[in-house]
Amino acid sequence: MWYRLKKKYGNTFAKIEDYLSVSKEQLNELSLITDRIDNKKSQMRVISETLKKEAKELTFARALIADKFEKLVTKHIRDLAMPQGKFQIILAKKPEIGPNGVDDAQFYFTANLGQEARLLSKVASGGELSRIALAIKTVLLEKSGVPTMVFDEIDTGVGGVTAQKMAEKIAIIANVRQVLCITHLAQIATFADNHLYIEKVVENNKTSTLVKTLEREERITEIMRMAGGNNISEASRTNAEQLLLMAEKIKDGIN
């Protein structure tokens, strides 16, 4: 037996004792590691329960806000020529809790009475999406600290009375925020405080973009073009002037 010990752990008694001492220290460290692992597992269980509790509270808070938010958005949607439109928020559950909780907020929409709301991205037309986007931005206005809002062709797919109502909504936002609005519709352009005309110009086989601030007479001419194409007449000029005056009157009522 002594021979086997010497062969395996050292050729002297002192070396065997050293090996035994080191082995005991390692065993003790393993025991401590096991204790630490058990302690970490216990901490993880506590953290997991806390996380579930806070995620549940977050879901509850979101449900309350979602209920108010969808009612406000629905109200603005109906102001934009969708009298039966309805906006809904569904809080679906994710498989696991993430940095933002366990909820997956999904937007649902129906344009007609008696029809079940479906996923917004699947059912809304281009014009409907434009109006819903404007309605959402209008609702978020009070909570947003962003000083400038950009509407890039938010009037896509709309015209007539709907475009007029969109213009009035944008004017409300512009009363408290700076708004940059890119539009092809005369009804919206008439509400601008500063009307910029953007044009691409080709010179020497190079394309550049020119931006020009229009004076009042230039605005009238441009609104005539936007409203009626190239059919310029005294009647179209009168119509453009009336559109501008009406927009100014509405803006005065907002201020």
Automatic annotation (TrEMBL):
<protein>
    <recommendedName>
        <fullName>DNA repair protein RecN</fullName>
    </recommendedName>
</protein>
<keyword id="KW-0067">ATP-binding</keyword>
<dbReference type="InterPro" id="IPR004604">
    <property type="entry name" value="DNA_recomb/repair_RecN"/>
</dbReference>
<comment type="similarity">
    <text>Belongs to the RecN family.</text>
</comment>
<dbReference type="GO" id="GO:0006281">
    <property type="term" value="P:DNA repair"/>
</dbReference>
<dbReference type="GO" id="GO:0006310">
    <property type="term" value="P:DNA recombination"/>
</dbReference>
<keyword id="KW-0547">Nucleotide-binding</keyword>
<dbReference type="GO" id="GO:0005524">
    <property type="term" value="F:ATP binding"/>
</dbReference>
<dbReference type="GO" id="GO:0009432">
    <property type="term" value="P:SOS response"/>
</dbReference>
<dbReference type="InterPro" id="IPR027417">
    <property type="entry name" value="P-loop_NTPase"/>
</dbReference>
<keyword id="KW-0227">DNA damage</keyword>
<dbReference type="GO" id="GO:0043590">
    <property type="term" value="C:bacterial nucleoid"/>
</dbReference>
<keyword id="KW-0234">DNA repair</keyword>
